[in-house]
Amino acid sequence: MTMKYINLFFLMIIILITSCKSEIDDFDATAGSADFTTYLAFGNSLTAGYSSGALSSSGQKYSYPSILAQQFKKVGMQGEFKQPMMPTENGVGLRFSSSGFVFNTRYILGYKQDCLGQVSLSAVSSDPNASQADLQAQLFNSVADDGPFNNVGVPGLKSTDAISPISLFNPFYARFKSENSNYVLDEVSIINPSFFTLWLGSNDVLLYALTGGTGDDITDVGDYSTAMDSVVNRLTKNGAKGAIANIPEITSIPVFTTVPYNALVLTDQNTVDALNAGYAVYNATMEGLGLDYRINFTIGPNALVISDTTMPVPGVLAFRQIKSSELLILSLPQDSIKCAFWGSMIAIPKQYTLIESQIETINQAISGYNNKISEIANLYSLALVDMNTYLTKFETGMVFDGMEFNTKYVTGGLFGLGGDHLNPRGYAVIANHFIDAINRKFSANIPQVNLSDFQGTHFP
Amino acid sequence: MDITPIPRYLKNYYLASFFNIKFMPMKKFIGLFLVLLIITVSAMAGGYQVRLQGQKQTGIGLIGTPFKFGASSIFYNPGALSMMESKYSFSLGVSPIFSTAFFQKSGSDYQAQTDNATGTPFYFYGAAKVSDKLAVGLGIYTPYGSSTTWDDDWAGQMLIQNIVLQSVYFQPTLSYQINEKLGIGAGFTYVTGNVDLNKALPYNDNSEANLEGSTSNYGYNIGVFFQANEKLSLGVDYRSKVMMEIEDGDATFIVPASLSTSIPATNKFNAELPLPANLDFGLAYQLNEKLMLAAEVNWVMWGTYDSLTFTFKESGDLLNSSSPRGYKDSWIVRIGAEYKLNEKIIIRAGGYYDPAPTNELYFNPETISLNTIVYTLGLTYKPTEKLCVDLSYIQTFGLEAEKSYEPENFSGKYKAQSYIPGIGITYSF
């Protein structure tokens, strides 16, 4: 009798243990009023997944469209999201230099010795042995046979290029161009999307800005508007819905904010005196001309001497110390400051600087583009992804899941080592911001991605 | 230490009894107890408090103050110890905790669940009446502890990967019977505790910090027991706060080589963690010869847990952290009943609602403490007049809720559950 009660007690417990299962209900992913069956991404290098100075298979894997496509699959996207993949993990990048175009591989963090023999953490090539010919062959190798592609992100693409055969001269487009396309925008009709994302316009100012205004012109806001009208017309032709992102303030990205205006650090009074003596004639001349320009050095950090052809003086005098509000570009060879008297005895060439008037012109253009983008978003009922406001939040810093993000080079966790594109985790942040805007606009419920699943800056 | 054999051992024990096989010999059981003494870990609702300190009390909704259950009064109410009916009483037991917490990230389909080690809060009490009025006793028990293990690469890895918090209380106790109705008692508590936690660092995939430290401190436990009449008894008990102050704990940092100059691989840290005070008030009413009803209110003074601060000996500028917890005091209301089936079997049941002391904005996944509903079951078998075998089973349901840890911008839905079978014996003579 007694044992029966005890056995009953155990039986009850066994039943209770086995019957209890309490998990959280699954996320209810819904498409809202949008149709994600066929997704196409249109844009430039940011859309292509360019990262750490190159387009590489390792970067493309984490392009924001690729991340978005993974999430769109949960709300009805069909088939594979195809990207024109580069053949290698180290990829190929293309940059301007005084000697023309130079190919490079993706950058990684490594150690570099400067001209003073000091070793520090720097961006170094992920494959120093890759030859220019190899890299060129990689980039020029066509992958069009693997298409058509859902990711029509073309590094270097400006809004005006999208509707012009000039895009055929862009090797990043030439490598995946469809047979029936005359230029980039034609790729849209081949995929015929039901949903698209569009982020285009950064290069319309960036190619100018990255070269200190020497390599390209800023696209006129009127031309930008015309081009964008054509692009959106084509994208929405068959009733597709979509999201359009606006242009962030490019002058707040690390490629322009890493080298400080006062990067010339002087520690020796003799040097200071010698420099000041050397500029005595300059200062006297400026005074004589009734101009405020003065060059003066002290112990500690000093504003660099830069070339400025906008000054109302003869060419031989067209240099001055940079203002704290002006910017130096990351491409500036810093060894030249340390060992070749750049910024002290030799004015820094203008392809490495953005002066106040240039910054103002850039910002005016961006603001004009963004007005157009807002107008388009309204007119075509697109989700507006406000990247401009979003990036300003990262200037002071944002925290997600215990990870800090800001716009600082390397340590900011958002940008790749090129300083102008994002790292995989940064692209995931961007993708989540797209998802936010899409969910709001189309009353959808697309799940965001988990940021710690993506690699940030990798330290050696 | 490998702890997997323990639950399996206990499971065999349950099955053996289910199939009417003889109980485990005493010697073996003591051996088991000693193993458990070394590896005590535990996890339950209500911050990191665990009240599983007596199987009879556990079965009846974890009510303890209004009973004179013998030696286990040392924890629940030292005032009732002097009321014990036999001259000597010994009690020991263990309650393995099988707990799981579930997580669903806000705005995402990301889900995770804990893979917690089995917690094993235990107790041992020995008491003797040195005179008609005076009783002395010693209790060793584990009222605070937690064990939370998330996957190393889970979404909240920067906040916590896993944590084990352990404490053992040693409490010598004196209890005095002022008259037939009124007993008072007090115990001095010596508390040893340790913490071991891992969290990821935002550098590379395998960057992480391990913090490990142990400490000890003192506190007290006082209680009053009042037998108002034959049917009604009341009890009140206060257990003091004990601050676990870790000094020179060991910190180990796994960081990329390029950062090793700013973040040393080994370091020392100081931190403190409160084990909060409790004020319990309970009453029991003997409805008839067979049925007793009881209720209790606990005021758990979690408000003291305001923040968790780590100070490091080296690279303090970079590593020191103070993160808010903002706990608030909680009130737990318990009800329970006991029914005497026959001379050999007593059954018990109870339940309570345990509101989370955690802060909505500072909910850190190191301690998954949610508003929790609990039911309890208990059974005492008395094979002889002197021996009680006490069984209990409780199941906790941490109610699903959206929580966030604002400073780290980490939020999601949490849900938790645990099932806790318990066994103990009491020998009185």
Task: Describe, in short, the structure shown.
Helices cover 35% and strands 15% of the residues of chain A. Chain A is an alpha/beta fold and 460 residues long. In chain A, the strands form seven sheets. Chain A has a five-stranded parallel beta sheet, with helices on both faces. In chain A, strands 2-3 form a two-stranded antiparallel sheet. A two-stranded antiparallel sheet of chain A has the order 4-5.
List the helices and strands and how they pair.
The complex is a heterodimer of chains A (460) and B (429).
Chain A: H1 2-19, E1 39-43, H2 45-48, H3 57-60, H4 64-72, E2 93-97, E3 100-104, E4 107-113, E5 119-125, H5 132-140, E6 151-153, H6 159-162, H7 171-174, H8 186-191, E7 195-199, H9 202-209, H10 221-235, E8 241-245, H11 254-257, E9 264-266, H12 269-278, H13 280-288, E10 300-302, E11 305-307, E12 319-321, E13 327-328, H14 334-339, E14 353-354, H15 356-379, E15 383-385, H16 387-396, E16 398-400, E17 403-405, H17 424-442
Parallel strand pairs in A: 1-6, 1-7, 7-8, 8-15
Antiparallel strand pairs in A: 2-3, 4-5, 9-10, 11-12, 13-14, 16-17
Helix pairs in contact in A: 4-17, 10-15
Chain B: H1 5-18, H2 26-38, H3 55-59, H4 73-76, E1 88-94, E2 98-105, E3 111-113, E4 122-129, E5 134-141, E6 145-149, E7 162-177, E8 182-200, E9 208-227, E10 232-239, E11 242-254, E12 266-275, E13 278-286, E14 291-300, E15 307-312, H5 316-319, E16 321-324, E17 330-340, E18 345-354, E19 372-381, E20 387-405, E21 410-428
Antiparallel strand pairs in B: 1-4, 1-21, 2-3, 2-21, 4-5, 5-7, 6-7, 7-8, 8-9, 9-10, 9-11, 10-13, 11-12, 12-15, 13-14, 14-17, 15-16, 17-18, 18-19, 19-20, 20-21
